[in-house]
Design goal:
The protein is mainly α. Among the domains are: 70 residues, Ribosomal Protein S8, Chain: A, domain 1, CATH 3.30.1370.10; 104 residues, Hypothetical protein af1432, CATH 1.10.3210; 77 residues, ANL, C-terminal domain (GMP Synthetase, Chain A, domain 3). The chain has a three-stranded antiparallel beta sheet, with helices on one face. A hairpin with a 6-residue loop joins strand 2 and strand 3. Helix 5 crosses helix 6. The longest helix is centred in the first third of the chain and has 148 residues. About 1% of the residues have low confidence. It is found in: Cell membrane. InterPro entries: HD/PDEase_dom (IPR003607), HD_domain (IPR006674), HDIG_dom (IPR006675), KH_dom (IPR004087), KH_dom_type_1 (IPR004088), KH_dom_type_1_sf (IPR036612), Ribonuclease_Y (IPR017705), RNase_Y_N (IPR022711). Its EC number is 3.1.-.-. Endoribonuclease that initiates mRNA decay.
Length: 521
């Protein structure tokens, strides 16, 4: 039993010694690890310090470089400003030197002037001495003459003045009378000569327009197509153009009646295109009429430009050119307004040339003198004043504006061109057969009839037909119902009875057409 115990004790002692050795070994390893960690920390700290030092040096170098760059830029800017200042100082010095030289020259001139002034004063003094001597001698001689004539100086002067005055008045009166008689005779002869020469040198036509146009057709079979089923084509054409289409027994002819030449021309051209095309129905009629109206507008501009080229008038405003073209489709007392204006322009140019005035300006004023008659909007001003305002608006010469406004004596004439335009207008309008006042009043009555109907609400178009015996009123179907259409017709008739004078009776027809349009896409 004892031996196993010793063995156990020996084993325990061995275990204790092993454990002690293991503990000592572990303790030594921990110290070594700790020392390695400290060493690494020192290395890392040294590297960080070195890196910080390097970064610090880099930042310092960058700051120094930036400072040097800014300093160089500042110095460069300062040098530029210094050079500018130096340049300006040099210029100022040069100017100062120049001014000093000029001042010296002025002083020299002043000195010269002073010297001349002294010389002039000396000469004046000498002249004054001589004058005084002459006056003394003259007074002595006058005194001697007064003693001889028993008259004082003032009495002799008064007698001489009275004698000269009477003689001068007599001669002047006779001379003035002769001059006036000669001037009246010469002025009358010259005026008659200029007017006669101008009339003789201006060749114009005497024919006047009427209110009817004739459309020729190849055969009477076309009349049926133009009339259409139950007259729908001819009604559509009349509604679109505002004229009356007369299809009667006249062979190979259709009568287009209307007081407005523009409407008649649109209707004539539309009929021509429809007959050529062969497709005649209401929709096609409206399309052709719309295209024709556009073409007429272009033709108006072309007529205005052609007229200006023919008369040699340049620089006219486009709107004035358009109005000149519109004159082709207007008349004044039956006389075509464009032909009248061209005739007046030629008469003005001839008269101005005979009188030695500006012929081109006179021709321009003559062409534009009735421009107020074709203004598209209704105005309460007289056409001469309206034309003058339009000319001013489009920058025409003041003499041209005055001639336009004064050709009917609405304003005072301020230039020689104004009476020339007035005289030329009278010459052109007073020729036998040139004008027909009845026609103008008739057209004005029809125009007033249409304007009266257009003043009602809901009225789109209005056309005077049958020489003013019928008034066709086209209304907007959306704003005027079938019930109010009858009332509108009655209201128009009552207003016509109250405000207008007319022969016979007037038929008022209100047309209300409902259209529904849609598109297949």
């Amino acid at each position: 039993m004892g031996e196993p115990i010793y063995i156990i004790i020996a084993g325990l002692v061995g275990l204790g010694v092993g454990a002690l050795l293991v503990g000592l070994f572990m303790k030594g390893n921990n110290k070594k690890i700790e020392e390695d960690a400290k060493e690494k920390a020192k290395i890392i700290l040294r590297e960080a310090e070195m890196n910080a030092e390097s970064v610090k040096k880099d930042r310092i170098l960058e700051a120094k470089e930036k400072y040097l760059r800014l300093k160089s830029e500042f110095e460069e800017e300062v040098n530029k400003k210094k050079s500018i200042i130096i340049t300006n100082e040099n210029k100022l010095k040069q100017k100062e030197q120049s001014l000093n030289k000029e001042l010296e020259q002025i002083k020299r001139k002043e000195a010269e002037l002073d010297s001349k002034k002294e010389n002039l004063n000396a000469q004046l003094h000498a002249v004054q001495v001589k004058k005084d001597e002459l006056d003394r001698v003259t007074n002595q001689r006058i005194a001697d003459l007064e003693k001889i004539a028993n008259l004082t100086r003032e009495e002799a002067k008064d007698q001489l003045i009275e004698m000269l005055k009477d003689e001068a008045n007599t001669k002047a009166s006779s001379h003035i009378k002769d001059i006036l008689d000669q001037a009246k005779l010469s002025a009358t002869k010259q005026a008659k000569k200029i007017v006669l020469d101008t009339i003789q040198r201006t060749a114009t036509e005497h024919a006047i327009e009427n209110c009817v146009s004739v459309f020729n057709i190849e055969s009477d079979d076309i009349k049926g197509k133009i009339i259409g089923r139950e007259g729908r084509n001819i009604r559509a054409l009349e509604a679109a153009t505002g004229v009356e289409i007369v299809v009667d027994d006249t062979p190979e002819a259709i009568i287009i009646s209307g007081f407005d030449p523009v409407r008649r021309e649109i209707a004539r051209l539309s009929l021509h295109r429809l007959v050529q095309d062969g497709r005649i129905h209401p929709a096609r009629i409206e399309e052709v009429v719309a295209k024709t109206e556009k073409n007429i507008d272009e033709e108006i501009v072309e007529i205005g430009e052609r007229t200006c080229i023919e008369l040699g008038i340049h620089g006219l405003h486009p709107e004035l050119i358009r109005m000149v073209g519109r004159m082709r489709f207007r008349s004044s007392y039956g006389q075509n307004l464009l032909q009248h204006s061209k005739e007046v322009a030629k008469l003005c140019a001839t008269m101005a040339a005979e009188m030695g005035l500006n012929a081109k300006m006179a021709k321009r004023a003559g062409l534009l003198h009735d421009i107020g008659k074709v203004y598209p909007e209704e105005a309460e001003l007289p056409h001469a004043i309206l034309g003058m305002e339009l000319a001013k608006k489009y920058k025409e010469h003041p003499e041209v504006c005055n001639a336009i406004g004064a050709h009917h004596d609405e304003i005072e004439m301020t230039s020689m061109i104004s009476p020339i335009v007035q005289a030329s207008d009278a010459i052109s309008g007073s020729r036998p057969g040139a004008r027909r006042e009845i026609m103008d009043s008739y057209i004005k009555r029809l125009k007033d009839l249409e304007d009266l109907a257009l003043s009602f609400d809901g009225v789109n178009k209005c056309f005077a037909m049958q020489a003013g015996r019928e008034l066709r009123v086209i209304v907007d179907a959306d704003n005027v119902s079938d019930q109010t259409a009858g009332q509108l017709s009655f209201d128009i008739s009552q207003k016509i009875e109250k405000e207008m004078q007319y022969p016979g009776q007037i038929k008022i027809t209100v047309i209300r057409e409902m259209r529904s349009v849609s598109y297949a896409k």
